[in-house]
């Protein structure tokens, strides 16, 4: 039976006997503010200038001078959980995002997406009449769903945003990003040689969305969520910003950590009496490093500083754009980071972060002296860098540990609140040191906007919003903290804050959860977790541990799961992008594939078979995955079949002995895993062996950049051509068949090794 649309007028036999009715959408009050949330990635507590560093962030600093600095604000230890808690106002575990969206474990706390039982800020505000925009990094969709095939249920447009422009995965190259507009992949609007950089593009797009909306509907407020790719690896910035910091950090991380700490004490962003935490294990005294180590570490820190400085200028452009539209005064603008500074550069730092995930950090392959010859690439379009632990801990001053850890270095980050129409003039530039957590932001927005999140949404009963609005703290510096109990968990590491006390356990992969050691800190006198009171107050510690288990159960954080790198592996099954027979068949033309939806060739033997028709002159790429920093490309050049196996700049190339005959041809490239890190690459033309080469650097995790069929998307994997080098002949079909030879025990051992390096 058909259901008539809602109508509250009168329908008579004629117009004269009828009364029209117009279903008007909801509209916010005239005083309703715009809401802008600017989220930085992997930016530590000390790295903004107004939080202690010497990195130039004048635009962020100006927002702080005219707003409020929150100095006791906390987040989850990694990005996706923070984003889920931020957008929903609920525990990240309760909404299905205990760790990064790349992982799906079959348990409710790790769905790889936000449950439909938890509305986002965008969904709530759009129902109230707001325009809603997301521009930047999403990372809240299962990786295998991040292709043009969808499904799109957990893409931004399905979670309350009217428009989206950005990237779906955890990171992207800032000069050659894998971009999505709304629900479809797009090419970047420029190239690095044109002066293109993603952060600039994001702000251009954000301002375009806002002006498009305000130009037609000036009465309608907007919610803009702007999660930059900065300052996540790769640390990349325009050349002028890189040169600005050249030679600035030669005194080393010990000196700069002291300088930044002194500034923090002087400006009040850390409490009086706070100690500077000792160096983390694995961070050597600067004076004991070799010359090449220091040279490499300085250049990597320069790249980070340039990246943050450049991002600050883009935030300045956004603020000026809002001011030009006369929207700044009535905009609630928040700037924060998603977790502490990253440990994923290892002890020396890396030119390519995927080396970290391949355990290539401190062996003969990657001693810093091997990198000095490429030092001028750092920070530019030919690198994918992350800095060493020493600079990461400097970024987390005065704390210890890093991103991934539940100690303060992983979870204690800056938050700036700017809202001219709400913040009293005599409070602008002041500090709030009341404890708060990222899930407290959504209810704060709801209170300031004057809306109530729905109990049901699209017919689905909603989880209660469990965050605590801190609007009262914005208004009154003496107001008590609204959040007094907060639990943390990541990869088995745990912590609980109860008022002035914190219990924390840094879990080591594989250790016994029941017997490993917890630490106890009195935060009121020991913000930086230097004085462990576990032995002095065992009863208090035991009570806090019991409280953690209670909060964990209440918020859906169980079961504890300490798997890490091994969870990046795909699940082979029918009715998915990764078929049970491990045979992938692609027929161009196709949009580029994100890594999670690409053929899962990392760490496995496989062969690529291309069925082509070509003339003698028709060359080009048949299959490519990754980018110029690491990847694999199969292509035809000068009539020969070529495979370039690019392992972090070390190219193993095989070229067919014979010319491919014109007409129909079957071309095969085989990559065979050997023992340890060895492997063999061979090619066949029409069933005949045509050459092979060995590689000593077999990759288990290849790149964060996905695959392309019939061309090379982004930066060229091989230096033998310029991207996209599209195949000029006819590629009828490309088949990738995986061998079932991955070694799960080895992958698990590598994950454990990585965690133990700390």
Shape summary: globular
Rg computed from alpha carbons, rounded to a whole number of angstroms: 27 Å
Counting helices, strands and paired strands, the structural category is alpha+beta
Give average pLDDT, whole number: 94
The level of helicity is 10-25%
Major sheet summary line: 11 strands, mixed
Q: What oligomeric state best describes the polypeptide chains here?
A: single chain
Poorly predicted parts? 362-366, 748-758
Structure characterization notes:
There is one protein chain. This protein is an alpha+beta fold and 758 residues long. The chain folds into 3 domains: 34-483, Alkaline Phosphatase, subunit A; 486-565, Arylsulfatase, C-terminal domain; 572-755, Jelly Rolls (Sandwich). The strands form 5 sheets. Strands 1, 2, 3, 4, 5, 6, 7, 8, 9, 10 and 11 form an 11-stranded mixed beta sheet that branches. Strand 12 and strand 13 form a beta hairpin. Helix 4 runs parallel beside helix 7 and helix 6 packs parallel to helix 9 (389-395). It is globular, with a radius of gyration of 27 Å. The termini are far apart.
Brief synopsis:
The protein is of the alpha+beta class.
In terms of topology, how is this protein built?
Elements: E1 34-40, H1 58-65, E2 68-74, H2 79-88, H3 121-127, E3 131-137, E4 163-167, E5 179-181, E6 184-186, H4 198-216, E7 222-227, H5 239-244, H6 253-267, H7 291-324, E8 331-337, H8 354-357, H9 389-395, H10 408-411, E9 412-418, E10 430-432, E11 436-437, H11 441-449, E12 456-457, E13 460-461, H12 471-475, E14 485-490, E15 493-498, E16 501-505, E17 519-522, H13 538-554, E18 583-586, E19 606-614, E20 620-627, E21 630-637, E22 640-647, E23 650-655, E24 663-673, E25 679-685, E26 688-695, E27 707-709, E28 730-738, H14 744-756
Parallel strand pairs: 1-7, 1-8, 2-10, 2-11, 3-4, 3-7
Antiparallel strand pairs: 2-9, 4-5, 5-6, 8-9, 12-13, 14-15, 15-16, 16-17, 18-28, 19-24, 19-28, 20-21, 20-27, 21-22, 22-23, 24-25, 25-26
Helix pairs in contact: 4-7, 6-9
């Amino acid at each position: 039976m058909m259901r008539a649309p809602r109508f509250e007028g009168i329908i008579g036999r004629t117009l004269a006997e009828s009364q029209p009715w117009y279903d008007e959408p909801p509209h916010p009050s005239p005083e309703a503010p715009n809401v802008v949330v600017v989220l930085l990635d992997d930016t530590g507590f000390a790295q903004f200038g107004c939080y202690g560093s010497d990195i130039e962030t004048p635009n962020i600093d100006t927002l702080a001078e005219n707003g409020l600095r929150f100095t006791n604000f906390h987040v989850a230890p990694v990005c996706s959980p923070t984003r889920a808690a931020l957008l929903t106002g609920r525990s990240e575990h309760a909404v299905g995002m205990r760790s990064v969206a790349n992982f799906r474990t079959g348990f409710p706390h790790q769905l790889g997406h936000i449950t439909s039982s938890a509305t986002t800020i965008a969904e709530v505000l759009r129902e109230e009449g707001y325009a809603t925009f997301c521009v930047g990094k999403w990372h809240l969709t299962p990786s295998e769903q991040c292709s043009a095939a969808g499904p799109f249920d957990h893409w931004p447009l399905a979670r309350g945003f009217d428009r989206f422009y950005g990237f779906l995965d955890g990171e992207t190259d800032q000069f050659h990003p894998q971009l999505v507009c709304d629900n479809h992949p797009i090419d970047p609007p420029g190239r690095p040689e044109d002066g293109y950089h993603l952060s600039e593009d994001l702000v251009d797009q954000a301002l375009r969305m806002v002006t498009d909306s305000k130009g037609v509907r000036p009465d309608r407020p907007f919610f803009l969520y702007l999660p930059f790719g900065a300052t996540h690896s790769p640390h990349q910035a325009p050349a002028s910003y890189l040169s600005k910091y050249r030679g600035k950090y030669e005194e080393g991380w010990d000196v700069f950590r002291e300088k930044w700490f002194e500034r923090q004490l002087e400006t009040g962003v850390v409490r009086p009496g706070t100690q500077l935490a000792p160096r983390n294990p694995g961070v050597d005294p600067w004076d004991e490093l070799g010359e090449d180590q220091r040279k490499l570490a300085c250049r990597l820190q320069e790249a980070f500083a340039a990246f943050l400085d450049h991002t600050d200028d883009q935030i300045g452009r956004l603020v000026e754009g809002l001011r030009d539209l006369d929207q700044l005064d009535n905009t609630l603008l928040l700037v924060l980071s998603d977790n502490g500074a990253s440990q994923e550069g290892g002890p020396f730092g890396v030119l390519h972060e995927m080396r970290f995930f391949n355990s290539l950090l401190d062996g003969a392959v990657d001693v810093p002296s091997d990198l000095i010859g490429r030092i001028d690439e750092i920070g530019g379009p030919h690198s994918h860098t992350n800095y060493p632990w020493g600079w990461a801990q400097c970024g987390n001053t005065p704390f210890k540990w890093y991103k991934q850890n539940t100690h303060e270095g992983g979870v204690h980050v800056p938050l700036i609140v700017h809202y001219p129409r709400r913040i009293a003039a005599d409070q602008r530039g002041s500090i709030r040191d009341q404890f708060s957590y990222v899930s407290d932001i959504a209810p704060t927005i709801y209170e300031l906007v004057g809306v109530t999140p729905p109990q049901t949404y699209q017919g689905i009963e909603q989880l209660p919003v469990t965050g605590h609005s801190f609007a009262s703290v914005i208004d009154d510096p003496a107001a008590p903290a609204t959040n007094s109990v907060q639990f943390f968990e990541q990869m088995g590491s745990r912590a609980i804050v109860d008022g002035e006390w914190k219990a924390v356990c840094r879990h080591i992969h594989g250790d016994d959860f029941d017997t490993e050691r917890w630490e106890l800190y009195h935060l009121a006198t020991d913000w930086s977790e230097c004085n462990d009171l576990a032995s002095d107050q065992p009863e208090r510690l035991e009570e806090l541990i019991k409280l953690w288990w209670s909060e964990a159960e209440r918020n859906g954080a169980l079961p504890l799961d300490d798997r890490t790198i091994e969870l990046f592996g795909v699940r082979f099954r029918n009715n998915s992008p990764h078929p049970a027979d491990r045979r992938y068949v692609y027929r161009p033309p196709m949009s580029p594939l994100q890594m999670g939806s690409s053929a899962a060739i990392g760490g496995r033997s496989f062969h690529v078979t291309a069925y082509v028709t070509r003339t003698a002159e028709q060359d080009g790429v048949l299959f490519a995955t990754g980018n110029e920093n690491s990847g694999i490309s199969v292509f035809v050049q000068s009539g020969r079949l070529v495979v370039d196996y690019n392992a972090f700049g070390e190219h193993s190339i095989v070229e067919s002995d014979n010319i491919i005959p014109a007409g129909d041809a079957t071309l095969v490239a085989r990559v065979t895993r050997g023992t340890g890190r060895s492997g063999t690459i061979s090619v066949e033309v029409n069933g005949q062996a045509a050459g092979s080469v060995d590689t000593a650097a077999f990759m288990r995790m290849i790149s964060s950049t996905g695959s392309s069929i019939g061309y090379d998307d982004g930066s060229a994997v091989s230096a033998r051509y310029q991207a996209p080098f599209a195949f000029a002949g006819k590629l009828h079909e490309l088949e990738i068949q995986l061998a079932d030879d991955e070694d799960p025990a080895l992958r698990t051992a590598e994950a454990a090794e990585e965690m133990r390096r700390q």
